[in-house]
Amino acid sequence: xxxxxxxxxxxxxxxxxxxxxxxxxxxxxxxxxxxxxxxxxxxxxxxxxxxxxxxxxxxxxxxxxxxxxxxxxxxxxxxxxxxxxxxxxxxxxxxxxxxxxxxxxxxxxxxxxxxxxxxxxxxxxxxxxxxxxxxxxxxxxxxxxxxxxxxxxxxxxxxxxxxxxxxxxxxxxxxxxxxxxxxxxxxxxxxxxxxxxxxxxxxxxxxxxxxxxxxxxxxxxxxxxxxxxxxxxxxxxxxxxxxxxxxxxxxxxxxxxxxxxxxxxxxxxxxxxxxxxxxxxxxxxxxxxxxxxxxxxxxxxxxxxxxxxxxxxxxxxxxxxxxxxxxxxxxxxxxxxxxxxxxxxxxxxxxxxxxxxxxxxxxxxxxxxxxxxxxxxxxxxxxxxxxxxxxxxxxxxxxxxxxxxxxxxxxxxxxxxxxxxxxxxxxxxxxxxxxxxxxxxxxxxxxxxxxxxxxxxxxxxxxxxxxxxxxxxxxxxxxxxxxxxxxxxxxxxxxxxxx
Amino acid sequence: xxxxxxxxxxxxxxxxxxxxxxxxxxxxxxxxxxxxxxxxxxxxxxxxxxxxxxxxxxxxxxxxxxxxxxxxxxxxxxxxxxxxxxxxxxxxxxxxxxxxxxxxxxxxxxxxxxxxxxxxxxxxxxxxxxxxxxxxxxxxxxxxxxxxxxxxxxxxxxxxxxxxxxxxxxxxxxxxxxxxxxxxxxxxxxxxxxxxxxxxxxxxxxxxxxxxxxxxxxxxxxxxxxxxxxxxxxxxxxxxxxxxxxxxxxxxxxxxxxxxxxxxxxxxxxxxxxxxxxxxxxxxxxxxxxxxxxxxxxxxxxxxxxxxxxxxxxxxxxxxxxxxxxxxxxxxxxxxxxxxxxxxxxxxxxxxxxxxxxxxxxxxxxxxxxxxxxxxxxxxxxxxxxxxxxxxxxxxxxxxxxxxxxxxxxxxxxxxxxxxxxxxxxxxxxxxxxxxxxxxxxxxxxxxxxxxxxxxxxxxxxxxxxxxxxxxxxxxx
Lengths: 499, 477
What we know:
The structure holds 2 protein chains of 2 kinds. In chain A, 73% of the residues lie in helices and 3% in strands. By secondary structure, chain A is mainly α. The longest helix of chain A is centred in the middle third of the chain and has 32 residues, at 156-187. Chain A has helices spanning 3-24, 30-56, 79-102, 109-128, 132-150, 156-187, 206-223, 232-235, 241-250, 252-268, 270-275, 279-298, 303-323, 327-358, 369-372, 374-388, 394-408, 412-438, 460-478, 486-497, and strands spanning 62-68, 71-76. Chain B has a domain at 269-477.
């Protein structure tokens, strides 16, 4: 095997191997477990850096292994895969740090971090999958690896959340598999390719391709939380904060959205999909999701639930970008894949900090939180402003490109959707900020916990990750024209997609 | 290599006899050691077949058919030989610890006869020898189920005995009719003789053979004997009979269907598939509703057997359905053994056989729960397990023939399987009342846990060796 074949496997192994070792560790080996976790995360980042440099220079990284005749487990680390891989690798490191602080002293940490690592492993596999078969293998692995994390606390509510999560995702997986096998029976095994693989095949019945597309999108839409398949997401909020962060920003919903993009770009091809009349319904579904998610968020008092509905809304920006069927929309969707991850993980980290330090779970309890926890609230503010699309934040870049894409595609109603969504975002985020910064502090907090090691505000391990992601959110917004920024990388992908 | 074929039958007979004379203690060690040798032999046979030297034939005592007994091995037999030894070896290690306190004198001799019967069955080449081996397997299995001696086990064993005798009686009658019509019982000789224009007696014989074997495979609606027998026996016995014994009669149906009765089979192809679909839905539903852990796993066997019968209308030149069947036999054998083994640990640890009783087990027996979960992944047909490949091949075969009804049944079965597997897992994750963890003697359970885990991992890894398995299945097919 050459180095270029080994590297994609090494990226997967850098979380799989530590994960399996962690399962075997006794509960009290905190030091070794932490070392393994961080070692894996850092090694992965280094490997990803090597891949990024190589791909920018035109190298190809691919590996295949035959599972059945004609069916390969195949990985291809192309530019698009690396967009997702890099996001996950960076956020995995930060989430691991956060989770170590968050779970300090709680039981079953070996199990938690083991499955945590498996989740990231599955995400890497999803990102680098070179065909739908491989994608599906890791997509289902992700379902299985996240279930123990959702039910981690073992309370009846957690089990209920886990049950609903499984019911949605397993049915979704079934629909997806139906679509994949059907496609396979129709055109044989095919790797993802720029411009799609179906356009060149003659004599395919259009209705079958449309039905397959519907099955694939329905299967992926469950994880991407497209309305009406989004019901599991608010229920899965019972999980510990680092898991919510992972679910919302890095792994599960992203896997769904990423899959939609792979199907549109890699399998069908944008132009062929548009010719089959598939993209307009997709755009409508995305638009409905964007508005509906924001509307529901408006009425949630529970902070994490409000953030969850916000995720429902924001993830569909990515899908919308693909459905706009043009280079600008593509760039907007791709760049939002990264930006939404950064902003949403910041918000979930902060929500976790409020809950852990002050016992704040509800928006109505947020009064004066900014004075008690200024750094956390600054990070939260940056994330929230980004979600609204305020200037200088990452969110503004995404919305600008999506807007241009909508104009270029002649879909003016999409502009209206974007405006309505921004207004709704402001309507559900600004009250939180106002309460946190401008309302007086209550005499006592719901449940104030004193961090074992940290500053006055909270434990360092809980404070540093959201600050880091907030800084990156600002950085990607302000320095978006720099080489190597998410926007720059998204344009590189779009160039390869629209030659 | 062919001179080694009889040893796959002789070795288990030898250690079964020795175990009877030596007693359970030394008998167990002998059984485990010899089964390891058998496993090596089975793999050696598979490698030889894979290298392309064709199907070996061994003429026992130098007499060929029609006078003597021929032992014949092709890819399908080699696959089942590997499965048998691969399941038996860890289960024997498991059983040695499981029965440690009160080892029943009969376990090792009966287990030896069971393995010998299985090995002889897949190497036999004529209908009458197949009958003899089928009886050995069936009676050994009944003996194992009855071994515990409680009233429930004896009742289950009697019911099982009745079913297995009815099944083999019909089979024997069918063989007699075939012999009366053609004067031979050799499969190779019969294959060119039987045609769709055969006399009525042969059609009748074919029907008797098929139904007799269906009874022994516990295909719906002949499944009534299976849940009490498999759900009532001690865990290692349940694992052996659920993983292997039902596969023996299925193997035989497949042999006859593809061999002598191929010409007549097309007429009846819909029947096994309809019954299989009913088995999947009914068996899974009962597993979802089961209150006892072992009953849940036993009903799951009823359902999983159904998948094997879905392949019959899909058999064709593209071999997809045959491959799906072979893969399912292998994956289910390993996964079901793992599942019964892990349930055995759960029952020993919690002291009762109830789904509700596993609350909080995730905290103290994570390895066992992992084994149960991995075995469950195979049964649900999720990647990257062997069960997934079987499901993929089956769905592809069904879609290529436009059989959407089958696709729906397969997927419904998978979702129901997920329901009954996650029922247990979810209960295990429940925080125990008062937050008090179960007190478990980890040291004693360690061997049991690891053997269950090894079987479960094997059922997953099968999914990564699809190419080799399909190549093996292609030999002599």
